[in-house]
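Form P-L/3: holo structure prediction, ligand pyridoxal-5'-phosphate.
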Amino acid sequence: MSKFLKQSFSQLVPYTPGEQPKDNKYIKLNTNESPFPPSKKAVAAAKKAAKKLQLYSDPECLKLREKLAEIYGVKKEQIIATNGSDEVLNFAFMAFCDENTPAAFADITYGFYKVFAAVNNVPFTQIPLSDDFTINVDDYLGINKTIFIANPNAPTGIALTLSEIEKILKANPNNIVVIDEAYTGLGAESAVSLVNKYDNLLVTMTFSKTRSMAGARLGFAIGSKDIINDLNTVRYSTNPYNVNSMTLAAGVGALEDQEYTIKNCKTIMQNRAYTTLELKKRGFSVLESLSNFVFATHPKFNANELYLSLKQNGVLVRHFTDERIKDYNRITIGSKAQMQQFFKVLDTIMQGEKL
Ligand SMILES: *Cc1c(COP(=O)(O)O)cnc(C)c1O
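OUTPUT (holo model):
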């Protein structure tokens, strides 16, 4: 730390991204990326856009928003595009939270929420998940806070139903409820259908997971025109060109190839069922996931040691050290071949000398 860092940041603990190894020797099942390449249409569009990099990107992200509006059945004024959904989540903390309106989110959830709270000097409450890692909806009723819910939740993969979300929206009419849908399309119900009914709802989504574009950094949010206007005030006060022109073009290309995304989602769901079954056969408990990862624990094998052995043998999964989840590993669902290789390695470890 330099002597120049402001006092209020002296205790700031930044977000720790999952490992991104520099070599290709690992099967990467640790950061919930897609095992499939981006749509060919996305790649072609990005290449074309690269030829015009002398120009600024469109600050309105118009084409992308029009396309998204069409797909999600809302007006383009109800959509904001951002540099990954992380950026719009940060904008939401900036726009809708302060000491009078603190943030609230689960104790076990996406790790960035508490970092965004800290960096924006926003007080926050962590609401404990139940023992079975589900969200207890009653804990979120009329709490006078800006609520952030990852649905499905990370790293558990467990989702709330639409009626449970609606109950939370109804009970907090004077507060924003952010539903972070990073994993839509994999079985959970989307809350987008409720945006015209509840003016306190903001739904965030990303191209990083099911659309195979994590490296392009493209996210967006859908809400009422007024909420989106507020977020745009923050955006134009920080970086109006937050989405670069190659990414914008790639995003439109990906949206023109919806069949590809839908096909990949289907494959991931099949591979998730396969992975869950095979893990259970080997004695793991696996939480019911509606995302592109599973969260699993074994009564006999120490999760951290298992993570390390897998890594030593070329398979990366994610282990978190938080007390409540230290016995679990989060395993991203890859291609069938990747999952078969994962089980091959897992079997050697489990049959070998005890860990
Ligand atoms: C991956 C993820 C995000 C962030 O995704 P971006 O790559 O920034 O779009 C946000 N929330 C959850 C729950 C995620 O898993």
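COMMENT: The chain has a mean pLDDT of 96.
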